[in-house]
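JOB MANIFEST
job_type = single_chain_structure
chain_count = 1
residues = 286
[input]
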Amino acid sequence: MDEKAWLAQQFEENRPRLRGVAYRMLGSLSEAEDAVQEAWLRLDGVDSAEIESLPAWLTTVVSRQCLNQLRTRERRREDSLDAQVFERGDDFDLEAEAQLADSVGLALLVVLDSLGPAERIAFVLHDMFAVPFENIAVMLDRTPAAVRQLASRARRRVRGEQPAADVTRSRRAVEAYLAAARGGDFEALLQLLDPDVVLQADAAVSGAPAPVVLRGVRSVSKGALLASERARGTQVALVDGSPALVLAPRGRLEVVLTFTFDGDRITAIDVIGDPERLRALEISVF
């Protein structure tokens, strides 16, 4: 086997890990694939004899590519949130994105998207892929101690406040609501919702000039079933310390559903899509 064929074989063996690194950094499958492809193009133009560890070299190249992308995003933060959310290329693969997001966790992607580029790189590489702080320091042009602080700060943001024990019951109800909405189970929704439940969706979600309000268990259940397609890309997260649902295409927050309970029954649902309201929410993973 010649050198080029050997490198290609080694690259393909490393591709799943590299894609996993890039996806957690960028939250976008297409952008992750681009970063991995860039690593291959650079590998094709270097002398392999100069590479001490090929997996480490590839991880460094992919990470730097992701860092550049994250910094570019940071400069565009003045763009409205909804403009960022719906900016999808023609190659956007909803099914593949949904499967990958499900394996990683939408809530985690949302929280990662709220971190600064350096924090995100430090946390993903160290906490999720066990890359030493010394190696990350070289990528970020910082000291290992500074990178350790970045990762620690990011870790606190990701974990948030640990939920109280009584949150468990609410979480089960939210998970059951999501399962019923995904599965089109009208009877299950009737059991979960209070007879006088009220759902309010702000204008950013409904597209109407004013918030839309649904009242009563049958009306709210029918609304949940109509949103069953969206429910496929939705996951449970902690929002302001309470179980809620988040919809986040490509890891960028689009809609949040918060719930009010009376015992095991859901008495109110607030569907939030307004960018200002979304930015005010504190989201973390269980």
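[summary]
The CA atoms of residues 8 and 37 lie 12 Å apart.
The first strand starts at residue 193 and ends at 201.
exit_status = 0
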